[in-house]
Every structure is written in C-alpha cells, then in structure tokens.
Specification:
4 helices, 3 strands, mainly alpha, about 130 residues, 3-stranded antiparallel sheet
Length: about 130
C-alpha cells in the first residue's frame, strides 16, 4: 500500500465516522454503545436481543433492560464537528505528512470531576423520565 492508497483509506474512514455520528444512524450508534457495555461486563448478546424503544426514553431495549444513551462532551464541543473538520482535512491533503499533528495527552479526571460533568445531564434525563 503506497501513501496515496493509505490517504484514500484514511479519508474513507473519516467518511464512515461522519456517517456513524449522523442523526440517520442514531439507533445503530446507541445499540453499538450498549453492545460495548455488555461486552465489558462479559454479558453475551445477539443482535436480535436489541430493539429500538417505541417511544423514547429509553433509547434501546435489551431483553428486560432499558438503556438511555447519551454523550457528555466538554463545553463548546458538538458530537460530530471534529470529525467533519477531520474529513475536510483528509480530503484536502496531498500527502500523509500534511496529516501529521501533535495531539494533547489525555488527562485523567477524578471521580468527583466526572460526576460533576455528568450531574447536569443526569438531572435533565431524570426530569424527562419523570414527565413521561
């Protein structure tokens, strides 16, 4: 595989990421999140075990369980903005060297900080469930 083939592959992967994060694939994405959770918990599953809920919430039904899936992003971030930008960057690149960039090292956060970030969304979700 030469550089142009690899560049083409990277562009295709960015296109796939954009499609996966789109509203059109919301159900597929939510099911995928539930599958990864079950995988981490060593709970076996089959694709047929998942069904979309008729009315949300919840997002995904799995056997007797009901899952509400949500993303908590840093302030000012939107779900697909970064991948849209990355797709444009890859489409306009003529070489792999143009795609090289230094990424910030991930920062560990404490459980208290994690809960602080989740709390507003969890309060909103709890309110929505109460109303329904």
């Amino acid at each position: 595989m030469d550089d142009s083939d690899y560049l083409r592959l990277l562009t295709i992967q960015a296109e796939q990421a954009n499609a996966f994060l789109s509203n059109a694939r919301k159900w597929e994405r939510e099911r995928w999140v539930c599958q990864r959770l079950l995988q981490g918990l060593n709970i076996p599953y089959r694709s047929e075990d998942f069904t979309p809920a008729g009315q949300e919430p919840p997002d995904v039904l799995f056997r007797d369980a009901a899952f509400e899936v949500f993303f908590v992003l840093d302030e000012g971030r939107r779900l697909n903005d970064e991948w849209r930008e990355e797709l444009q960057r890859r489409r306009s690149a003529f070489s792999l060297a143009q795609l090289v960039r230094r990424e910030a090292r991930p920062r560990r956060i404490s459980a208290v900080e994690l809960l602080g970030r989740l709390a507003p969304t969890l309060r909103k979700k709890a309110h929505n469930y109460r109303e329904r």
